[in-house]
């Protein structure tokens, strides 16, 4: 259970802490667990969304690092968990630099505790809707060289922005400020057009007063017109560059089996700036 940290209203749920709870973490409060328990109890199987998203993020960071990118900005990073962006990146690129951005003070507190011995990482308390503030933050200026390619991570965050907050323009703001060879990763809730996913969307709207599930075309439009979508394009997180199945002739790979309605709720893509 999360301890008391100054500046946190424990009576109000947080997107980051609900996500932490669904992934089995302990940095959450009763208000967060109440929302998480709705998904666990009333929408059985929906926790697969969080796991599918996290596993795709791990694979995406590995792919970006293998493409030679050594610095990352993780927008709406959430609470530290296993296989954080810097840990995955540094497996492939020792010394990889990562700036984590989140507006939840508990993320700042726990993130700084995790990263206090790593000079190549930082956690910044900021709102992703204020990109100029993030860009000019001293820690971002210290870590990120905008003359070299950057990996921009928008993992399960842009669907928490409403249309009038213009998430497409937000992505374009960053694309305009990173050089050729930079890569942008987006995962996003998909419009499901079924009872279960409509219930999930309604619950988040009711709880946080924001959020918009988008169609595949709308998700792709978030990348704008200046990026090259890399293989395999926009696809379900579970099926995005999946790890090969174990050496078991009876094991069916995720590309061959029918996905659950929840696995079909979240999709992702990776793009490169030419």
Automatic annotation (TrEMBL):
InterPro entries (UniProt xref): SAM-dependent_MTases_sf, SAM_dep_MeTrfase_SAV2177_type
Classification via SUPFAM superfamilies: S-adenosyl-L-methionine-dependent methyltransferases
Protein name: S-adenosyl methyltransferase
Species of the source: Nocardia transvalensis
């Amino acid at each position: 259970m999360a301890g008391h940290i100054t500046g946190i209203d424990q009576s109000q749920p947080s997107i980051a802490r609900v996500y932490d709870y669904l992934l089995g973490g302990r940095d959450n409060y009763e208000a967060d667990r109440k929302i998480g328990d709705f998904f666990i109890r009333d929408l059985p199987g929906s926790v697969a969304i969080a796991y599918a998203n996290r596993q795709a993020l791990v694979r995406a960071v590995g792919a970006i690092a293998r493409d030679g990118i050594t610095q990352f900005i993780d927008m709406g990073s959430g609470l530290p968990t296993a296989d954080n962006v810097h840990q995955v990146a540094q497996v492939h690129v020792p010394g990889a630099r990562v700036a984590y951005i989140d507006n939840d003070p508990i993320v700042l507190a726990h993130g700084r505790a995790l990263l206090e011995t790593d000079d190549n990482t930082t956690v910044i308390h900021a709102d992703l809707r204020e990109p100029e503030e993030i860009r000019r933050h001293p820690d971002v200026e210290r870590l990120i060289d905008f003359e070299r390619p950057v990996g921009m991570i928008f993992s399960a965050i842009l669907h928490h922005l409403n249309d009038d907050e213009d998430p497409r323009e937000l992505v374009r703001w960053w694309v305009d400020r990173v050089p050729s060879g930079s890569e942008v990763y987006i995962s996003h809730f998909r419009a499901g057009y079924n009872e279960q996913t409509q219930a999930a969307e309604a619950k988040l709207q009711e709880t946080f007063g924001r959020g918009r599930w988008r169609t595949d075309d709308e998700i792709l439009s978030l990348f704008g017109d200046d990026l090259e979508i890399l293989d395999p394009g926009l696809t379900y997180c579970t099926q995005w560059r999946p790890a090969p199945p174990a050496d078991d002739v009876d094991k069916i790979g995720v590309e061959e089996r029918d996905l659950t309605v929840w696995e079909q709720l979240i999709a992702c893509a990776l793009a490169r700036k030419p």
